[in-house]
Every structure is written in C-alpha cells, then in structure tokens.
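Narrative of activities, Objective 1.

The group set out to show that a structural description can be obtained from nothing but a protein's sequence at a throughput compatible with the screening campaign. Below is one input-output pair from the validation batch, recorded exactly as produced.
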Amino acid sequence: MIVSTKLLFEHAYGKYAVGAYNINNAEQIMGLFRGCMDSKAPFIIQISKGARAYTDKRLLEAMIRAADEIFPDAIFAVHLDHGDEESCMDCINSGFYSSVMIDASAEPFEKNIEITKRVVDAAHAKGVAVEAELGKLGGVEEHVSVSEADAKLTDPAQVEEFVKRTGCDSLACAIGTSHGAYKFSGTQGLHFEVVEEIARRLPRFPLVMHGSSSVPQDEVRRINAAGGKLPGAKGVSESDISKAGKLGVTKINIDTDGRLVWCRVHREYFLEHPENFDLRPIGKVFMAEYAKYIAGKNEILGSAGQLDSVREFIKNAKG
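Output recorded for this entry:
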C-alpha cells in the first residue's frame, strides 16, 4: 500500500527513522520488499533522476506497482530523490509519487526559497509532500557533486524562516554526512548538536539525513578481495544512524550500501562461477543478500517490527 510520507513521519517522529532506499531495477525492488516484509518495517522507495532515465521511468513505476500487488501487506511511500524543478513537476503531475525532493541547496538562500516555494505550491495542489534541502552535503551521487571545501552544514538560525516561507513538509539537513562510499577521511563524525538545535527550533518537524550509508567494512573487504578497488571507503557508524531517529530524523537515505552489496555479490559469484553467463542465478543470490541487508538495516533504524502499528495508525488517521 502506497501511503503519504507525512503519515509515516508522524508515526515515526522521535521513536525511529524510516529507511529510504534507492532502487534502479527489478532485483533491487524484489530484495527491498522481501527485506521489509521479513523485518515487518514500513519504508520509502527512492527514485532518482538517474534511475528514472536508466531504462524508462514508466517501466520502473510499473515494477513498483507490480510489487505492491505481490506484497499486499507492504506499507511504503514513493519518493523522488534529489529532483530539480523540472523532474519534480513531472513527478507531481504523474499522480504516482507520495513526495518529491527539490534540491536547490546549491543556490543562494533566497533563490533556494524561491524555487522550493514554486515546487511546494504545485505539489500541495496535488496532495504531494515536498522535501527540501538547506545546507550542502559533500561527495558525489549521480548528478550531485559537492567538493569538501564547498560542503556546508545547515545553519539552524535559517531553518524557521526557510520552512515558513517555503511551506516544505520535511527538511534535509547537512550535519556532516556526504554522498558516496568515501564519507569520512579521518575520525570526524556527525554534528548532532545541529540536529538538536534544529529540532528545538522546529518541534516535531520531520528532518531527513542524506548520505547515510554505513559502507560496511566487510562488504568493502570482500569486494577488494574479489578484485575491486575501494581503498579507504568509510561510512556513517550504525550507532550514529540509530541515534538520529531519536532526535527527530524521520527519514534516513541509503543508496551506496545497496550498490556495495550488488558489487560484492557479482564479483564473488563470477570468481566462483567463471563458466556462468546466465543473469538469473546471480540475480537470485543478489535478491536474497539484499533482502538480508535491508532487514538488518531496518533493525538499526528502529523501523523493524513497526508495520502493524503503522497500519493501525493510518487506519485511525483516515477515520
């Protein structure tokens, strides 16, 4: 069942975070749904601009609709990740998306507000929620590329004005995470004092943490042992991810970890089965491994075991 992110965030606030997982193909979709059903967790499917163009957005959306029928007990939202104004408007008008993210964070404060407000006005007219971003995450993810020198933490002094003037429904905050597999070069961590101050200024307002893959070191080790070259890849600690959900972070974005699982499975499989040329045996391995990863991540987020409670909450909210 596809639901509003607003309902998911309202149920989760201060208790746990909903996992927002990027998908690109049928194997990821099946693994994601299986993992969330195994862990009894609500979740968010994230579709990026790159994913919508990888095959065709209509094919990807049709696979999600099919998965909704295959897994009738699933509760999830469909979200556009890191959209520009054009892609946001396309998704809003499609009638399929629960929410969109307008990422105008590279623009000056006033321009960010201007663009975000246009998207919010169009989205709210169609019952679609909007995530905006204030501050700049470093790293590289598809078309988003911000150098370490240009990365900028969210200024808590700006958040009240930004939310009031834009009318956005959730806010992606830059607190020290970054996109990609190389999030930290040293021992630096997350700035939870920024989250706490933003939550104080915006009580019960849903916050979002991007760039939150943990980059499991066992996955990196196995990829490198199977011929990969990912020296020094490092992500967000799982203890920090778990902590964020208690502070008002209701949505945690995870993309890189799923790619690492894909990479590890394929590298190891072809080393062990050099004679194979059939995509299906390895696809089955990946779906099972990705489902296991998703179930474990939902435990860290605190969303595991919340499915029945969310279902009852939605039922009561709808009257």
